[in-house]
Amino acid sequence: MLKYLEQSVEEITALHSKLLLLAGPPGSGKSLLLSKLAATTSTTVVKVGAELGRKLASFPHRQRTLQANAMLRELASAQVTNDLLLLDNIELLFDRSLKLDPLDLLKHHAKAHRVVAVWPGEIRNDRLVYAELGHPEYQEYSLDGLVPFELKKFS
């Protein structure tokens, strides 16, 4: 699986949007696979929730919306290695109070660098899904223009 992921990461170099999303249900090994990729590429995995959350905590609640995008950009710029950015634990980007479009943010970063991100959701009926229908943070996106790397749940 790792060799296939490494090959896919090389192939996205030629694309306009160099975004590869590791998608699959909880327990499918997305974070573990990303950690293995980090080890083979000498890259650090950015734990977005912890790192961005820590930075945003110093701002009043109302200012977090204004600061989130800039802080994520700053965080990403500091962690790019060999034109590669690895992102995990991105659930904070779905927080409604931040008023962000998580996929749009990832695509934006992928114009400048190769980005491999763990998508905390699944691919269902050729749609990229986060959360369950009815959940306040539910999001659903088309796969058009995306490079999904789907993992199935381990038995």
Which terms would index this structure?
3-stranded antiparallel sheet, 155 residues, 22% strand, Rossmann fold, 5 helices, alpha/beta
Describe it for me?
This protein is an alpha/beta fold and 155 residues long. The protein has a single domain, classed as Rossmann fold. It has helices at residues 2-11, 30-41, 48-56, 61-79, 102-109, and strands at residues 19-23, 45-47, 84-88, 114-119, 122-124, 127-130, 139-142, 147-150. A 5-stranded parallel beta sheet has the order 2-3-4-1-8, sandwiched between helices. Strands 5-6-7 form a 3-stranded antiparallel beta sheet, with no helix packed on it. The radius of gyration is 15 Å and the shape is globular. The two termini are 16 Å apart. 28% of the residues are buried. The model has no long low-confidence stretch (mean pLDDT 92).
Distance between the termini: 16 Å
Q: What is the makeup of the main sheet?
A: 5 strands, parallel
CATH class: Alpha Beta
Order of helices and strands: HEHEHHEHEEEEE
CATH topology: Rossmann fold
Extract low-pLDDT stretches.
none
**Structural class of the secondary structure composition?**
alpha/beta
Number of distinct helices: 5
The residue-averaged pLDDT reads 92
Strand share of the residues?
A: 15-25%
Estimate the global geometry from the Cα principal axes.
globular
- As for the number of domains, it is 1
Strand order of the largest sheet: 2-3-4-1-8
